[in-house]
Amino acid sequence: MLSRSRRTVSENTALPERPAVDFSAAITAVKAASSYERAELIRDLVDAYRRLHGSVLRFVLMFEDGAQAASSADEPAFRPLQKLLSGLARHGEAAQFPRLRELKRAIKAARLAQQQRDFIFSGSFSNDSMAMRNTIEELERLDAMFVGLCVSYVMERHAPPLVAFVPVDARTIDLKVTT
User: Fold this and answer.
1) 0.90 exceeded by pTM
2) Do 142 and 52 form a contact (C-beta atoms < 8 A)?
3) Who contacts 34 (Cβ-Cβ below 8 Å, separation ≥6)?
4) Of the candidates 89, 102, 95, which has an alpha carbon nearest to the alpha carbon of residue 157?
5) Cα angle at 155 between 153 and 158, to 5 degrees?
6) Radius of gyration of the chain (CA)
7) 14 φ, ψ to 5°?
8) How many angstroms separate the CA atoms of 153 and 95, rounded?
9) Which of 155, 153, 48, 47 is nearest to 110 (CA)?
10) How is the chain split into domains, by residue range?
């Protein structure tokens, strides 16, 4: 005798036969495939925005003094993107950023892209896959633009100084020609 739960079942007890069930006819999709696509697009949109926010934050921190930024009461990682963009514009002007015009254009585009991202939760926009893809691409393009501006600035600042080229007059050089 085998003991299961509270009742006892003998080894010889046969289980009643159940008719075969065709599961393919009984299974219905709980969520449509489009909702999975939408969820992936929302995830991609959030990731693209997070990367843009991180790139702008690193750009701002590059301009700010590291010790001052770390001790400030307004923790930089929690600053809204609009505040980071405003700070980046101020820092760029104060540092006489060589590509200031491009930086200001990128800042303006990032402000507009954030507004587009905010519309994701509205009823009509959240169901438009193409509009979501376009917003994701715009956020990724802006992220690459900020990274490019920041990297080129750092490289310019840390590049070794160019050695001045002084042309040499051939008449002042004593050449010994051996034959």
Assistant:
1) no
2) yes
3) 129
4) 95
5) 110
6) 32
7) -90, 145
8) 11
9) 48
10) 34-159
- The pLDDT tens digits of the residues spanning 39-79 come to 898 899 889 999 999 999 999 998 886 435 444 545 556 78
Q: CB-based contacts of 129: which residues, under 8 Å, 6+ apart?
A: 34, 37, 38, 41
- Taking the C-alpha atoms of residue 108 and residue 138, their distance in angstroms, rounded to an integer, is 13
Q: In this structure, how many other beta carbons lie within 10 angstroms of the beta carbon of residue 52?
A: 26
DSSP the chain: -EEETTEEE-TTPPPPP-----HHHH---SS-HHHHHHHHHHHHHHHHHHHHHHHHHHHHHHHS-HHHHHH-SS-GGGS-HHHHHHHHHHHHHHTT-TTHHHHHHHHHHHHHHHHHHHGGGSHHHHT-HHHHHHHHHHHHHHHHHHHHHHHHHHHHHHSPPPPPP-PPPGGGS------
Other CB atoms within a 10 A radius of the CB of residue 125 amount to 14
Tell me which amino acid residue 101 is. Answer: R
